[in-house]
Amino acid sequence: MFLLALWGLAILAPLVWAWREKASIAMAMTLSLLFGYIVQLIWHWTGYDYLVIHVFMVPAWVEQGRLFTLISAGFAHSPGDPLHVLGNIVIIALVGIPLEKRLGRGRWLISYFIGLLGGSIAWTLANPGSYTPALGASGAAFGILGTYLAGWPKDEVYFPFIIIRPWPVQFIALVYFGIEVYKAMQVYKFEEVSDVAHLAHLGGFILAYITLPLVRKGSSWTPETEMVELPIEHPFEGVDELVKKLMDEGDEKETRQAWMEEISIRANCPICEGNLEFENLRIKCAVSKSHLHWP
C-alpha cells in the first residue's frame, strides 16, 4: 500500500502547493498527471502493476458502488502508453493555462472535474455491466476544450497543428470534437475495434460545455465582445506611465490585457499593500477583491 499512497501523494502535492501559493492550478494539474504516471512506471518496473486495479474505472464496479473510481481513473494512465498522458498534458497546458486566466483558479478546477466526471459517466452509461476498464485524463482534457469553446471561442492559443502558432479556440475544439464524433461512429456504427473511449471524450466535452454558465455564475468574467470603459482616475501608485499607455492603447483586447498584466505585477494594493492579480480584464487585490477590483 506504500506505493499506492505514494501515487496519491504525487497527484495531490502539486495541487495543494499551487493552491496555497496562488500559483497556476492548470500547470499544477499537468505536474500531477506527470508525477502520477512516473509512480505508475515504478509500479510497472517493480512488478506491482496490479495496484492499478484499485484506481481504474470499471462500469460494473461503479454500478456496485465504487464511485470514487469515476475520479481516480482520471489520474491513471497505462505505463505502456506514454503518448496518452502526453496528449492530455499538451491540451491541459496549452489550452488549460489560458483558460485559467479567463475563468479563475477555483472555477477552472471545478470545470476540470466536471469534464472528468462527464467522461467517466458517459463511459459507464454507454457500457452498462461491462468489465472493460477505463482510465486517463482525456475526458477532463476534452472538458477544457468544451469549456473554452462555450466561453471564449475567438481566443487564440498556441497549439501544435502541423505548425506551432496561435489558433482560434473554436478551431482547436471543433477539430478535436469532430474527430471524436467520426471515430465514435466508426466504432459503434460499424463495430470496429478500438481501445479508446471516444464516448468518454465526448461526454467530458459536452458536460463541460453546457455547465459553463453555472460554473462562472457570480464571477467577474467579461464577455469577449464587451470591454468595460477605463475610468480616468486610477488607484495605483508608481505606475502612471503604464496607466497612460493603457489609456492610450487599450482599445484592443490583447493590448489592454498586456498593459493591465504589467500594472498588476508592478503595483500593490492601495489598501493592504499586498500583491495584485489580473483576471478577466480586471485587476484585483490578491488578498481580497473588496480592497481593489478595477475597473
Please give a structural write-up.
The chain has two domains: 2-215, Rhomboid-like (Rhomboid-like fold, Up-down Bundle); 240-294, no CATH class. The chain has twelve helices and five strands. It has helices spanning 2-21, 25-45, 59-63, 69-72, 82-94, 96-103, 105-126, 138-151, 169-189, 198-215, 240-249, 253-266; strands at residues 156-161, 163-168, 276-279, 282-285, 293-294. A three-stranded antiparallel beta sheet has the order 3-4-5. Strands 1-2 form a two-stranded antiparallel sheet. The radius of gyration is 21 Å and the shape is elongated. The N and C termini lie far apart (52 Å). Mean pLDDT is 87; it is low at 190-195.
Could you write a compact summary of the structure shown?
The protein is mainly α and 295 residues long.
List the helices and strands and how they pair.
Layout lengths: L1 H20 L3 H21 L13 H5 L5 H4 L9 H13 L1 H8 L1 H22 L11 H14 L4 E6 L1 E6 H21 L8 H18 L24 H10 L3 H14 L9 E4 L2 E4 L7 E2 L1
Antiparallel strand pairs: 1-2, 3-4, 4-5
